[in-house]
Amino acid sequence: IETRTHNGYREAVYKTRRGGAIVIGKSIAPIESELHDLSITLTLTGCAIVAAGFLVGSFITGRSLKPINRIRKSAHRFANGDHAARVTINDTTSELGKLSADLNDTFSKVGESFDRQTRFTADASHEMRTPISVILAKTQFALLRERDPDTYRAILESCQNSAEHMKGLVDSLLELSTLDSPATQLNLANTELVPLVESAIDLIRPLADKREISITTEFENCTYSIDAPRIMRAIINLLSNAVKYNNQGGAITVRLKKNPTDIEITISDTGEGIAPEDLPHVFERFYRADQARTVTSESGTGIGLSITHAIITAHGGTLSVKSEPSSGSTFKILLPTVGDAGQ
């Protein structure tokens, strides 16, 4: 039996032994019509599925990209000077939510850095403007007409004092920039801390004696790997502040103690103390307040405590202060001993 398709029929052909043939067939037009309809249906269904997939994919992609678009817009605003720009976080548990939180934290830190730098530049300019104005005023006064030698001498002395103030400010700023640099190199060496602190006290004692301020000490012998000149300057800054902001006839207590995990240096006084609203800002550069200790007797520029804080931080330590108005203040230096080569 043979099968064939002929003139729209599906036929079966049976050949007899005598050379004849029997043909049986059926029209396949209905089947072809159904197949045609099915192909159209499948084609339309496929197109609908593709279109629906495209729409759903576009919707899902759009929703997925919205957080990224918010991040992009916030970063663009921040880059254009809007330091208050932050990324809105709807889902803090997703990866993008965590990324947004990290970016917001970064924006906050960078914004604070920009604000500090702007404030620092303005304050430094103000500090420099005052002595420059004094020098200009004095020299203009001297050049108006002839003066007697004593007047010229007084003018030159005033100009010299202003120039020394500027030099102290410039030196302090250079030291701060050096300490702020990641490439800062400390000249570390194992140093006996008791003689170092005693030397700092000896330098300050004449100022304390002038105001009848007593200095008592409580020392424990200990050795630490430090940049001795810088640590000594930090201690002198704290001691000079303790004298300058103390009461007449007051007292200063200096303690040096070796703890299991750190070395503790505290300098306490019986002065007027620091107001609570000023306490968080005492280590900021050029911060001024009536009772806040932001100006050292050495420089008078408002960055003595900033330098002290930077020196201690460069050694891997911490500097903190506790104070109450009319109850004095205590500055504490902690130098970690874990892993220190000097121990």
Can you characterise this structure?
- By secondary structure, the protein is of the alpha+beta class.
- Helices cover 52% and strands 18% of the residues.
- It is built from 6 helices and 10 strands.
- The chain has helices at 29-79, 95-144, 149-180, 193-210, 228-244, 304-314, and strands at residues 2-6, 9-15, 21-27, 189-192, 214-219, 223-226, 251-258, 262-269, 318-323, 329-336.
- The protein has a 5-stranded mixed beta sheet. The protein has a 3-stranded antiparallel beta sheet with strand order 1-2-3, with no helix packed on it. A two-stranded antiparallel sheet has the order 4-6.
- β7 and β8 (262-269) form a beta hairpin.
- α1 (29-79) runs parallel beside α2 and α5 (228-244) packs antiparallel against α6 (304-314).
- The termini are far apart.
- The model is unreliable at 290-299 and 339-343 (pLDDT under 50).
Strand fraction band?
Answer: 15-25%
Oligomer status: single chain
Number of alpha- plus pi-helical segments: 6
Biggest sheet architecture: 5 strands, mixed
Structural class: alpha+beta
Q: How would you describe this structure in keywords?
A:
10 strands; five-stranded mixed beta sheet; 343 residues; alpha+beta; disordered C terminus; 6 helices; three-stranded antiparallel beta sheet
SSE arrangement:
Blueprint: E1 2-6, E2 9-15, E3 21-27, H1 29-79, H2 95-144, H3 149-180, E4 189-192, H4 193-210, E5 214-219, E6 223-226, H5 228-244, E7 251-258, E8 262-269, H6 304-314, E9 318-323, E10 329-336
Parallel strand pairs: 5-7
Antiparallel strand pairs: 1-2, 2-3, 4-6, 7-8, 8-10, 9-10
Helix pairs in contact: 1-2, 2-3, 3-6, 4-5, 5-6
